[in-house]
Amino acid sequence: MQFIHKVYMVLALLVLILIGLVFTPVVMNQEKSRQLKATEEVTQSAYPGIDIVTEVVEEQDYYKAIHYPVFKQERLNIEINNYVAEETAVFLDEVNDQRDVLKERDWQAVFHLTFDIHALNDGVYALVFSSDSLVAGANGRQMAKVFMLDVEEGDYILGEALVKDSQDTRKAIYEGVLAELEASPAYKDLYFHDMLEEWIETTNFSNLYLKEDALVFTFDKYEITAGAAGSPDIELPLESFLHVLNPSWVSRLQLETEAMETENAEPDDTVINQDDDASEKAGDAVTAERHVVALTFDDGPHPENTSKALQLLEKYQMKATFFMLGSRIDFYPDLVKEVFNQGHEIGNHTWNHKQLTKITDKAIQEEIHSVDQKLQDVIGQPATVFRPPYGATNAHVESFLNVPSVLWTIDTLDWKTKSPESILAEVKTGLKPGAIVLMHDIHETTVEALELILPYLKEQGYTSVQVSEVLEMNK
């Protein structure tokens, strides 16, 4: 009997061990999930009915930044959430497959997923997602996804419902896309006739979206062009292609009226004379004796963190430079105006944070100039300085610029440490007159660090000015 009792004790112990082995990973995964969700932030955008989720995750072997919309209608959220989850899973699977290579090269994989909003009318929007990842290979993965939806109705609008599908329609679209490819210096030597023909024969027009003045077809990398072309967007002028759309949608969206209103609109590529602008902002001559530095912030604006940073800078009477992403400017135009009106400098950090040394000339131009056009609309002038994402630049990239390209002398590593004390320590180590400090106003811990940095600069006799002034000083 005593023997049987001992057997039961051993069996019970084994059961407990097995339960622990089974449920411990579950608990760990749940804890990991909670930590991941803690990095998510939901903020209101400038577009009615659309909030923005921002998720930024940094690990030893990868960096992930995701922006996607949230709607009140759950039906609209399900499809977009599934798309975001699928794209993220593809990236993480590739990271897992290449983990040894990443460790060997001491390389951090990068994943960016963001979107642009094109508002038509009556709550109808086109959302164009851009997914870019670079893991261990020389060529990254670039994918595009289009969603057209009616927020008021809580429903998606399929591309095949927009188009009056027929052989004549497909022929007209094919000839229009072909003509645009032939006329484009970026694409004319990189597209493939057979791939274009296959696309027009099989497409359900899921890659079609409408802007006020154009039908736009967005293609994945390698879909109709060589990889060097990236993910091309082909625009067909609306006034010439209204006949391919269903009459009901032409009437509903009032496209004929809008096409007439925008027919003569041209983008404003005006660039401020940098020398005149710098001299106006600099005021007195900048000298090393003044002990000035430039605090700079990348990847914003962020509706909460940037606002807090502005309050701190005002408190200590210092200026900064905010290198903004075009996609974020589009989401928070009022905040951009506030930054500008408080006397801070606004820099161009590209539209979607793509690595410019790895994309086509056309894509480089779009990444840079689309930001300046948006700033022209929001604050009445383009950016006065530029910072390339990841600091990745070369002479060819610089040839697209009309303003100074600015890197940094102090990398606070705020994205990595998430420690206000460590960020302050990096500033202390590299501090000297004319220093340019790199931070990111998308992180709450960076704003907490700013509360330590600003009084420290004051104690040391330093003040922060716009980076253009420091560039002038360092000439």
From TrEMBL:
Ranges annotated as biased composition (Acidic residues): 261-278
Molecular-function GO term, any one: metal ion binding
Source organism of this protein record: Halolactibacillus alkaliphilus
Keywords: Hydrolase, Membrane, Metal-binding, Transmembrane, Transmembrane helix
Keyword Metal-binding: yes
Pfam families documented for this protein: DUF3298, Polysacc_deac_1
Record-annotated NodB homology domain positions: 291-465
Classification via SUPFAM superfamilies: Glycoside hydrolase/deacetylase
Region described as Disordered: 261-282
TM regions (residue ranges): 7-28
Protein name per Swiss-Prot or TrEMBL: Peptidoglycan-N-acetylmuramic acid deacetylase PdaC
Gene Ontology cellular component annotations, sorted alphabetically: membrane
Keyword Nucleus (UniProt): no
Record GO biological process: carbohydrate metabolic process
InterPro entries: DUF3298, Glyco_hydro/deAcase_b/a-brl, NODB_dom, PdaC/RsiV-like_sf, Polysacc_deacetylase_ArnD
